[in-house]
Amino acid sequence: xxxxxxxxxxxxxxxxxxxxxxxxxxxxxxxxxxxxxxxxxxxxxxxxxxxxxxxxxxxxxxxxxxxxxxxxxxxxxxxxxxxxxxxxxxxxxxxxxxxxxxxxxxxxxxxxxxxxxxxxxxxxxxxxxxxxxxxxxxxxxxxxxxxxxxxxxxxxxxxxxxxxxxxxxxxxxxxxxxxxxxxxxxxxxxxxxxxxxxxxxxxxxxxxxxxxxxxxxxxxxxxxxxxxxxxxxxxxxxxxxxxxxxxxxxxxxxxxxxxxxxxxxxxxxxxxxxxxxxxxxxxxxxxxxxxxxxxxxxxxxxxxxxxxxxxxxxxxxxxxxxxxxxxxxxxxxxxxxxxxxxxxxxxxxxxxxxxxxxxxxxxxxxxxxxxxxxxxxxxxxxxxxxxxxxxxxxxxxxxxxxxxxxxxxxxxxxxxxxxxxxxxxxx
Length: 427
What we know:
This protein has helices spanning 22-67, 73-89, 93-98, 100-113, 117-133, 137-155, 161-178, 182-196, 212-229, 234-244, 257-277, 286-297, 306-325, 345-358, 362-368, 370-375, 386-392, 396-419, and strands at 331-335, 338-342. By secondary structure, it is mainly alpha-helical. A two-stranded antiparallel ribbon has the order 1-2. A hairpin with a 2-residue loop joins strand 1 (331-335) and strand 2. Helix 5 (117-133) packs parallel to helix 7, helix 7 (161-178) packs parallel to helix 9 and helix 10 crosses helix 11 (257-277). The radius of gyration is 32 Å and the shape is globular. The N and C termini lie far apart (107 Å).
């Protein structure tokens, strides 16, 4: 007979194995249900906390809106700064759209009654409000109320100079976003021309006596004028080129580095636009202009600050290339999983203006603001969940290894180049 198989157990004894009972099954089922309910309740709590945070945020915004008409200047200033931060970092179209005229009334009051810093904050908030609302009837209503106030402050020589500077910039952007009549755009451009042309060097070579704060005002007016130039018709661009292209180089002799840079970028922009309209365009004073641009691109004057010279040389190398060759040094802007190429002076002027107001929130607005995406032809906003976004991002270790490898390769290349150098002093 075959031997009986040994049972597994300690010391050769048969182990006491209990069958799986119904009670154990029910316990396991209850355990699964409990963990599932915990996950569900955690998700619900997260949703509730997010909803509460949103309600708190909106409550705070309502408080800021109400405080823009407070008697205390300090309270109004804090409310304006709070609204500016919120609009620069979030998309608040639905919330703002319902309260746009209330916000507009607060901005108008601060511009008229406030002083200096408060007026600057109100002017910036007006731009952010238009950016949030986009190009349409809503922003047109806002701008219709604020445009006369902007122009009154801008043309008032007795008004606070900082307020005039802020209004020069804000009027330009708000006109770009919200103005619906091209003739009104041209009228606003003439308003800017009446300011920055006072900084032109006279034909006899004498320079106008302008203090630094007024020069800053003229610089802002010139940049806003250049911004509106990007939306002009072909016929108007021809008229502008004929009227101003011979005079704009006079601003290159200005003592202020920011005015020189603004003038150079405006000249490059105007050349780009007129060449699009007329590819055979020929500028009469070509050699003289290129000599001026080349001198600024290689400026080594000791009486100028190093940072100013470095910034000026960098800009004017690109300006000179644009005037001589019609070329532009393109730049890639990355935001989220997308990228945008700044490939023209028109795009650069537009991007720089929006970034001046939105600041660090520019990448977020490029991702989510439909109006800004439409301006830069990026299409509708992309919807990507957090898991996909996390998967696309490289890990910290990967970035560290990549940077280390790049640093090593760069060091080797530089050492190799240094080894090839000849010490001329030994000969």
